[in-house]
Amino acid sequence: MEAIHLYASQCFLGEGPYWHAGRNSFFWVDIENGKLFEYPLESGKVNTWKFEQRITLVVEGKADHLILALDQKIARFNLETENLEWIASIEDKPGNRLNDGKCDAKGRLWVGSMSKTFDQGAGAFYSLEADSHVKKHLEHITISNGMAWTLDNKTLYYIDSPTQKVNAYHFDLENGTLQFDRTVVEIPISLGTPDGMCIDVEGKLWIAHYGGSGIFRWDPFTGKLMEKVTLPVPHVTSCTFGGKNLDTLLVTTARENLNEAQLEEFPLSGDVFLIQTNTKGFLPNPACF
What pLDDT shows up at residue 186? Predict the structure, then answer.
């Protein structure tokens, strides 16, 4: 497997890749610059939208809507009219912002927060229900990041990046609750820091390693590294399965924390890449609102 350069988005902090099957498109965001990107696979003509706030995640909503996280709030965005409608406020902490998020099989949005200055334990992990009720599930989180559900929806894998761990939680889909089970992967700092994550049909975890120049495939049953796909950039931030057969990974990257010399050495930093895999992922769950 190898990573193929797809598009020169030059994101300061590319994140939140999402496959929208209905539009045959990949979406992703540039958090700090408040930009949303869409790459339609058929045309390759990229659409972009700019927002006044930081944008940290994008998932599919109902009809022509996307659900976005902007700073500390969740909004509904109409792709046709470009109307933005606020749904809920997740936090009210001036020093914080939201980060990664995904929907479970019931359409709840799960999203974490973090300090904009990376203060230890300043963040939390929440869910947003269909009635816009916000529930806090985990506290003392530093950088809430990757998450992935098993096929049976009984386990949620979750990453708080600075811990260098992937933890497994018992997940109750009906009630939208979780309980810590065990640590399934511990990642040596020499391989970078775990960031965004997705899961394949074999139950293996594909994790973007920030500072690790690649996407790493880990086995949560043994805790062992299975393979690595190297990228020509140091800061790899997230990945998601997509494409007609759900066997293609879209990978986001970042330019942040690189000096001028490093940017000259790694000029594709901030761009997005595709990896044709030997396995498949799942369609993402859309939001229920």
Answer: 98
Whose CA is closest to 185, among 171, 199, 166? Answer: 166
138-164 tens-digit pLDDT:
999 999 999 999 999 999 999 999 999
Pick from 276, 281, 195, 200: nearest CA to 238 = 195
User: According to the annotation, is 54 in a ligand binding site?
Assistant: no
Which residue in 30, 71, 195, 271 is the catalytic one?
Answer: 195
Place of tokens 């606020």: 86
Express each pLDDT in 180-204 by its tens digit: 999 999 999 999 999 999 999 999 9
Half-sphere exposure of 271 (CA within 13 A, CB side): 16
Q: Is 283 inside a domain boundary?
A: no
Residue 289, in any domain of the structure: no
Query: Is the residue at 287 inside a domain?
Result: no
Question: Which residue range is the domain that position 131 belongs to?
Answer: 3-276
Q: Which helix (H) or strand (E) holds 197?
A: strand 193-199
pLDDT for the residue numbered 278: 96
Contact of 170 with 154, CB cutoff 8 Å: yes
Tell me how many domains the chain contains: 1
Q: Look up 172 and say whether it is catalytic.
A: no
Q: Which amino acid would we find at residue 255?
A: R
* Closest among 234, 274, 217 to 250, alpha carbons compared: 274
Annotated ligand binding at 15? The verdict is: yes
Position 288 in a domain? no
- Residue 162 sits in a domain of what CATH number? 2.120.10.30
Residue 255 assigned ligand-binding role: no
C-alpha closest to that of 22 among 51, 60, 58, 49: 60
